[in-house]
Design goal:
The complex is a heterodimer of chains A (about 450) and B (about 475).
Chain A (H helix, E strand, L loop, with lengths): L1 E5 L3 H12 L3 E6 L2 H10 L3 E4 L5 H6 L7 E4 L4 H14 L3 E5 L9 H7 L4 E3 L1 H14 L6 E4 L4 E7 L14 H4 L7 E7 L2 E3 L12 E7 H10 L9 E5 L3 H12 L3 E6 L2 H10 L4 E4 L5 H6 L7 E4 L4 H13 L4 E5 L6 H6 L4 E3 L1 H17 L6 E7 L4 E7 L15 E2 L3 E8 L2 E3 L12 E6 L11 E2 L1
Parallel strand pairs in A: 1-2, 1-4, 2-3, 4-5, 5-6, 12-13, 12-15, 13-14, 15-16, 16-17
Antiparallel strand pairs in A: 7-8, 8-11, 9-10, 9-11, 18-19, 19-23, 20-24, 21-22, 21-23
Chain B lengths: L2 H18 L1 H10 L4 H21 L9 H25 L6 H12 L15 H16 L1 H8 L8 H7 L12 H25 L4 H12 L17 H14 L3 H8 L3 H5 L2 H21 L6 H16 L14 H13 L12 H19 L8 E2 L2 E2 L2 H29 L2 H12 L20 H15 L3 H4 L4 H4 L3
Antiparallel strand pairs in B: 1-2
Helix pairs in contact in B: 1-3, 1-4, 2-3, 2-6, 3-4, 4-5, 4-8, 5-6, 5-20, 6-10, 7-9, 9-10, 9-11, 9-12, 10-11, 11-15, 14-15, 14-16, 15-16, 18-19, 18-20, 19-20
Classes of the chains: A alpha/beta (about 450), B mainly alpha (about 475).
């Protein structure tokens, strides 16, 4: 597909890179010559120097024939205007990054009037992601499929866990008390493994399991990973994510204390968030954290603008025994090190936004009806968890799975039929309209037919 | 240097060259000139030498750095020229290696200078290969490889940039592979058009192909001692003159024409400057040589042909211009310096650079009169950054240095200054003939082997725009990473 990315900042560049890897024809517009010079060497895209709001620049970028236009510049207004101009010039589908809370309430109106097909608010999406992770404190991260019926969660296997040291095929023979979930992927070192029958989980592995919501919860209870709900959260940093998150958590009746360094901002926040305790002070100051009761809260979420501060504060909280710590860090390449040091839940605004845009792009890219409903990337995209709706005309319909060929590096995790979640076995079939969740180590899958063949 | 990656790339390129020799083998077999075994042997040797590193090496890092990309460009052209010289040696057509190397480099760099005294006595397969190297070298081997093997390496922009002529390289389509395919598509279509015209004008297939290769790559090898004059056909001369002009235009123009976008074509300052200079020089030369020829149209034909031949750095000749008046020769010398448009198959300094230098000189002169005036240099409707202008000045300086050093070194063999310096200029600009003892009716055979190697290096430096060749002399490039 022909995709036009306006603005080659952190998000734009990372998005463009992923889109190129998926084989799309990408054109990037940026106002800075130096950024273009630098990116040209590393990205196989066309670069155009100019502003995304200028019709001449957009025309030069061949916007008339663009399938998708993504506006990801610093300014919300520029993004909106770029999308409007692009749409009027003939672009098929427009995506704008709009992050100012002021626009939040009027967003549906703005989207309609400015013909923006999809508005992404990375900070709000990140806050929503964090609030979901806080609801499931036992897991490093939780992803949902099939309108929330299926969940994929991950945990770090520890010495003494009943799942460690047992081959997959004997897992439930040896552990009769364990609820049956599907072990769909295991991260070990830099590698991601799709476990087969003779695979043995070792202590230290990061294990991803899939099942319906109830079974997953029971599974974690049986593992003694504890699932007592989180009742109080301390947030460090009152930026946009902090604000959105506090708002969401207050709505869930969770006690929120928020630390903000700027006095003026702290005042504003206390006006906007009457239910929260706003503390003015430096969140990296350990004494302040202690005096405000860090050791007593159930969860700590450092969200300041600096990754280093967040990481240090996060490590400190882990050390002080806080049950759940979620750290915001945009440096994905450090996540392996952080996992090793005990920080399991890391969230990056860039990754959240990129993933949801990639999901949209891939849904549009796929021509057949068995489109990707949802997509999550594991380990910076080394593997993907995908949800498809089975196409009634596909060759794999109504054939027992044992007679189908499944890709070597892929796995059919669950099939959801009429609300019933089942882990498939050899005699099961995929029927028209089923939601199918699959794991693949090959990125860029856009159709179930690429995974299952007759 | 990431040795495994670089050597794998070079290996793949050699295999590509082996495959590209197949048509010449076919021609050699058809004409039974006794040169088929030489081709067969070279092809096998090239394929083996290429396949060993091309398939056996497994680099740990796949990312090509900018420095390695440049080194690959320089090294690959050296290697291609070396293996391209082997058929000349093995067939006995050009027994000495230095001579064969000069001829091969002259072919690949689309220069068209020759050390051969009698071209017509050579076997047809060898002559076909000699001209075919023009066609390969014109658009570039690396670009061809990118078109055929798009997934060669993650970062391929460096390669294309190192090889494509001009101060900047702009893609026509978002993907490098698609851009390369588009460029070769346009190149192929234009070549086909010329070949068809030449056939209609009465050439036989073999001659038509040879002269199409010579024109399309803006090289200038002919299979006749008299070059294009051997046909005694004004029609053929006009066809070739027009196509030489066309191949000197930036291929992006044809791309826009294909997409029916008039704007970029009308606003292409470089193209208009090029066409303007051609018109000016053609008129000037025609006027100067008018007394030597019977009528105006003959003079115009010779004047126009030689103008397009030299400015497009092709180097075909229909008349011995070393016998022309001094002013006509001086004009030709000017065209030799400028060259044609960036992004075409032509060599030389490139019109876009000349234009930018003129504009920046005008701006600086204006600045001495109006010291407080702020102005930017604009080109094709866009402002040009100061760093680009600074780089351009440095490039011109290095270009001049290389030309002067080359000229001085040539004085040992040349005998007179005109010969020495035009030999250096014609090789650096990839034109072909010079003046004096290297004029259009002469050849480069009298130079010593050392001089021939130096001239070969000059041709490579000119084709690759100096840096990829120059950096090979830097130890930093060879350090293992």
């Amino acid at each position: 597909m022909r995709i036009l990315v306006i603005g080659s900042g952190k998000m734009g560049a990372s998005l463009a890179q992923s889109l190129i890897q998926e084989g799309h024809n990408v054109t990037v517009i940026d106002r800075s010559d130096t950024v273009i010079q630098r990116s040209q060497d590393t990205m196989d895209a066309m670069f155009i120097h100019g502003s995304g709001v200028s019709a001449a620049t957009l025309k030069e970028a061949d916007v008339q024939h663009a399938d998708i236009v993504i506006a990801a510049t610093m300014g919300d207004e520029i993004n909106m205007l770029s999308c409007l101009t692009a749409k009027r010039l003939g672009a098929q589908y427009t995506i704008a990054r709009i992050r100012d809370p002021e626009y939040l309430s009027t967003l549906p109106f703005l989207q309609k009037e400015l013909s923006i097909d999809y508005a992404i608010n990375p900070e709000r999406a990140t806050a929503r992601e964090i609030s979901r992770m806080l609801r499931f404190p036992y897991a490093g991260s939780v992803e949902t499929f099939a309108r929330g019926r299926v969940e994929m969660a991950d945990f770090r296997a520890a010495e003494g866990d009943p799942v460690v040291g047992v081959p997959m095929r004997e897992m439930y023979k040896k552990n009769k008390h364990l609820p049956q979930v599907l072990f769909c992927a295991v991260e070990r070192g830099d590698e991601i493994i799709i476990p087969k029958g003779d695979f043995v989980i070792q202590a230290g592995d990061r294990v991803h399991v899939v099942s319906d919501v109830k079974t997953i919860t029971q599974f974690f209870e049986a593992l003694n990973k504890g699932s007592s709900a989180i009742k109080s959260v301390m947030i460090m940093g009152g930026g946009r994510i902090g604000y959105y998150l506090a708002n969401m958590l207050l709505g869930m009746k969770i006690k929120v204390s928020l630390i903000e360094i700027s006095e003026e901002k702290a005042r504003q926040l206390s006006e906007l968030l009457p239910g929260a305790t706003i503390i003015q002070g430096d969140g990296t100051d350990q004494e302040l954290l202690e005096s405000e009761g860090l050791s007593d809260v159930h969860a700590f979420v450092p969200l300041s603008g600096r990754d280093e501060e967040n990481l240090m504060a996060g490590f400190y909280a882990v050390q002080r025994g806080v049950k759940k710590v979620i750290v915001k860090s945009n440096r994905e390449n450090y996540s392996a090190i952080m996992h090793n040091m005990g920080l399991d839940s890391i969230i990056s605004t860039k990754a959240v936004a990129c993933n949801s845009i990639l999901r949209t792009v891939r849904t549009r890219a796929s021509r057949s009806t068995a489109t990707v409903e949802r997509m999550y990337r594991l380990m910076e995209g080394k593997a993907e968890a995908l949800e498809f709706i089975a196409d009634p005309n596909a060759p794999y319909i109504h054939v027992p799975l044992k007679n189908l060929t499944v890709n070597k590096d892929a796995l059919i995790a669950v099939i959801v039929r009429e609300g019933q979640v089942q882990v498939p076995f050899g005699n099961d079939t995929i029927e028209a309209g089923d939601h199918v969740v699959a794991i693949s180590r090959r990125p860029g899958i856009s159709d179930l037919g690429q995974i299952v063949r007759r | 240097m990431n040795y495994p990656l670089v050597f794998r790339l070079l290996g793949r390129l050699l295999m590509m060259e082996g495959a590209l020799m197949a048509p010449s083998l076919l021609v050699a077999l058809l004409h039974r000139g006794g040169d088929a075994p030489a081709f067969l042997f070279t092809i096998v040797l090239t394929l083996v030498c290429g396949a060993l590193p091309g398939f056996l090496l497994k680099p740990r890092r796949e990312d090509l750095t900018a420095r390695d990309g440049m080194a690959v460009a320089g090294l690959s052209w050296l290697l291609l020229s070396f293996f391209g010289a082997l058929p000349f040696v093995f067939s006995g057509a050009i027994p000495h290696l230095a001579d064969a190397l000069f001829e091969s480099v002259s072919g690949f760099t689309t220069t068209g200078s020759t050390i051969l005294r009698d071209i017509e006595g050579l076997p047809k397969g060898v002559l076909f290969w000699r001209s075919f190297t023009h066609w390969i070298g014109g658009m570039g081997v690396l670009v061809f490889t990118l078109a055929v093997l798009p997934r060669l390496s993650g970062r391929t922009a460096h390669l294309a940039r190192a090889e494509s002529p001009g101060p900047t390289f702009s893609k026509l389509l978002p993907k490098m592979g698609d851009t390369a395919k588009m460029l070769y598509g346009l190149y192929f279509a234009l070549s086909l058009a010329e070949c068809a015209c030449l056939l209609l004008a009465g050439m036989n297939v073999y001659d038509a192909l040879i002269h199409t290769f010579g024109t399309a790559g803006t090289g200038g090898f002919s299979n006749y001692n008299l070059s294009v004059a051997a046909f005694h056909s004004p029609l053929i001369e006009w066809i070739i003159a027009v196509f030489m002009l066309l191949f000197g235009i930036n291929f992006a123009i044809y791309f826009h024409a294909l997409r029916r976008e008039a704007g970029p074509i009308l606003h292409s300052e470089e193209m208009w400057a090029y066409l303007g200079l051609v018109a000016f020089a053609a008129v000037g030369i025609t006027a100067a040589i008018l007394p030597q020829y019977p009528d105006f149209f003959t003079a115009l034909r010779y004047g126009f042909f030689q103008t397009t031949s030299i400015i497009s750095t092709t180097g075909f000749s229909t008349a011995d211009f070393s016998l022309w008046p001094l002013i006509a020769r001086a004009l030709l010398l000017l065209l030799m310096c400028t060259g044609a448009c960036a992004g075409s198959t032509a060599g030389g300094f490139k019109m876009s650079r000349v234009l930018l230098l003129v504009k920046s000189a005008y701006r600086d002169l204006e600045h001495t009169l109006l010291p407080r005036k702020v102005s930017v240099v604009r080109m094709e409707g866009k402002s040009v950054s100061e760093s680009t202008l600074a780089q351009l000045g440095v490039y011109m300086f290095i270009y001049l240095c290389v030309f002067l050093v080359g000229g001085i070194l040539m004085t040992f063999d040349a005998g007179d200054l005109t010969t020495a310096f035009t030999a250096s200029l014609t090789c650096l600009s990839n034109v072909g003939p010079g003046l004096g003892r290297v004029g259009p009716a002469e050849n480069f055979a009298f130079f010593s082997p050392v001089s021939k190697l130096i001239l070969s290096l000059l041709m490579l430096a000119g084709r690759l725009e100096i840096y990829p060749v120059l950096i090979l002399f830097s130890p930093t490039v060879w350090r293992k990473t």
